[in-house]
Amino acid sequence: MFPSDPDVLVIGAGCAGIAAARELTARGRSCIVLEGGTRVGGRAWTESMSLDAPFDHGASWLHQADDNPLTPLARALGCEMLDHDTVRERRLFAHGRFATGEERRAFAAAEDDFWQAIDAAARDGGPDRPASAAAPPDGPWDATVVHWEGAQICAAELSRMSLHDFAATALDGPNLVLRGGVGGLVARLADSLPVRLAARVDRIAWGAKGVAAEGAFGSVRAHAAIVTVSTGVLATDGIAFDPPLPLATQEAIHALPLGLLTKIAFRADGPDVPDLPPFVSLRRAVEHDGDRPMSWVARLFGDPVFIAFCGGARAWESCGDATRAEAEAREEAAKVFGPRAAAALGRAIVTRWGEDPLFRGAYSHAVPGRQQARRVLGTPLADGRLSFAGEACHPRFAATVAGAWLSGIEAARAVP
């Protein structure tokens, strides 16, 4: 049942929208969640049909789990979960073979040196600049570390990212994986909420007297609205605002673009598939200028599924062309495991966050010089009548479900 005259409209039933609606309900405020798609969860989505095993198309880990607000909620629901860092073997492929123990230790030392350099540069009192400017440049593993920390983890190259924001949003472990998927958890947390699906909002009128959301579903009025759609949608005018948003808010939206991380997941049955034990993660070293390797995670919870991760500019280049993305992932598999093992990989599913008009990308980064854009976007307008929430608004846990959740709660608490 939907309230006919709600206190608050929540636009989007992703992690931030669900958190906002739960907080509003707990505070005795009525709300309706208007979701443009046909499911809840947003960029946290787990499905099992494609590969006959749970597969997280989007968010895959509960990062920094001891501080993550979703960790106690998952425990309360009895979710089966493991600290990936304690059960996985990290492998490195370099020079046409798997790296030796000495090479793996050298790579780990290069990662430590990278973060020491980043942290020192972020504290040096100088102006913000691209994160790549602070990265060590000349060591034998430095290009691989830069590619890994930028395109493969942050979904954008370090040259596109604010140094200060990159340092401020760096995360630690534990990194929990869930048997039912992160998307499965988020969907359960939406149970009993007043979510209206297939209700895409095209226009929001807002001001001192309240708000109205309009779309093909009609029009709904309320005291206030919390908008949780991605900056990718906002930057392409996916929602029209009347009156237009303040210039500072518009600039903040464009200063927080979405990067892209595409996953290509393969069913991996049969004797000839790559021989990797459960939970293994694999990186391939950068071999030359312009090389942009994918990385892999294998057999989570023992399921016969191999997942290739392709991030940053390379992901955008194959956006909208699932056939190309799958072919390139198979080529990557052949480089590491050999042609026969690569050919043995079965049916594949390719994620499509970049081309989906409800998202337009994976998760945000701040452009150089614009770290404060997250706080600007998260500042309520019209005395709290209009607020934005989502991972892009959180200055510490940006690009994660934790940041989206905390932002949604904060926005709900700011409603007058």
Automatic annotation (TrEMBL):
Family that this chain belongs to: Belongs to the tryptophan 2-monooxygenase family.
A Pfam family the protein falls into: Amino_oxidase
Alphabetized SUPFAM superfamilies for the sequence: FAD-linked reductases, C-terminal domain, FAD/NAD(P)-binding domain
InterPro entries, per the entry: Amino_oxidase (IPR002937), FAD/NAD-bd_sf (IPR036188), Flavin_monoamine_oxidase (IPR050281)
Enzyme Commission number, as recorded: 1.13.12.3
Coiled-coil intervals, chain numbering: none
Record domain Amine oxidase: where: 16-415
UniProt keyword list: Auxin biosynthesis
Source species of the chain: Neoroseomonas soli
One of the GO BP terms on file: auxin biosynthetic process
Protein name (record): Tryptophan 2-monooxygenase
Chemical reaction(s) catalysed: L-tryptophan + O2 = indole-3-acetamide + CO2 + H2O
GO molecular function: tryptophan 2-monooxygenase activity
